[in-house]
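General statements about sequence and structure are easier to judge against a single worked case. In the encoding step, the backbone of a single protein was reduced to a row of integers, each denoting a local shape. The record that follows shows the chain in one-letter code together with its fold in token form.
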Amino acid sequence: MRERPEDYQRWDGRRPILVVAPHGGMRSRPRRPRDRINDLHSADVARDLARKLDASALLNIGTDRNDLDLNRISVLAAAAPLFLAHLSDRIFSLARGGTVPLVLLVHGWHTTAAVCDVGCGLRLE
């Protein structure tokens, strides 16, 4: 599958924080035997979090993770150069002047586990 720019929602906030929802899209086709379950409401949670934090956001609101898994660097490099460019451009922009931006990746669960993970990692090298 090719990436579609209309599946991405993004904006800049005023704080050095980027909220990303790589699995916010939903399946629009019949389920296949090896499909993974989609994250429910992760784009909505990420959108609300970014707005409350006055953070930048990059949300996948349309692409099914089974067609393009935007949480995988190999997939971004091979099939989603626009998403990767948005991600890297915003991180580099937030890091200007020596600031270490906080990047939050929001992943939802599914109907059998009605919770939402919010992951945060920091690497200074």
